[in-house]
Design goal:
Blueprint: H1 3-13, H2 17-26, H3 33-38, H4 42-51, H5 61-69, H6 73-84, H7 97-114, H8 118-124, H9 129-138
């Protein structure tokens, strides 16, 4: 599952009707009136914003501004945490934050104890070349 879409779905679930109405009002200059009138949920609004590329994984300023305008500091905090955790550019099949920390710790132990032969060991463990290349950056 795509973490960015999950975040937007979570935001949508937490929106009250007056907040959705405010978001729609704030988007009037960016999205046509007819399209906005058909929006019944946050998911539908976020879908339009994604289609118009007003929000993307690496372009969150507009979304943050909308959330600030409706005074949803809790959602802004979640958005900032999402960015800090490195989820912004992560594809859906990437490990979560906890799993990445464990992987980083494992790579450090391997680098310290195996030395130059760490690549051969990691290949024998069945790790893909792409992940090995990423691991080089850690050593």
């Amino acid at each position: 599952m795509d973490p960015f879409l999950s975040l937007l779905h979570s935001f949508s679930s937490g929106l009250l009707e007056p907040e959705l109405a405010s978001l729609k009002f704030l988007c009037r200059e960016k999205i046509g009136k007819r399209k906005l009138e058909s929006v019944q949920s946050g998911v539908e609004l976020f879908t339009l914003l994604l289609e118009q590329q007003l929000i993307t994984r690496d372009r969150l300023d507009f979304l943050e501004g909308l959330l600030r305008d409706i005074k949803r500091e809790d959602l802004i905090s979640q958005l900032k945490q999402f960015v800090e955790d490195g989820e912004v550019n992560a594809p859906a099949d990437q490990p979560d934050v906890h799993e990445r920390r464990l992987q980083k710790a494992a790579i450090e132990v391997i680098c310290e104890n195996v030395g130059k032969n760490w690549r051969m060991l990691v290949r024998k463990l069945g790790v893909s070349e792409v992940k090995i290349e990423r691991g080089e950056d850690e050593c």
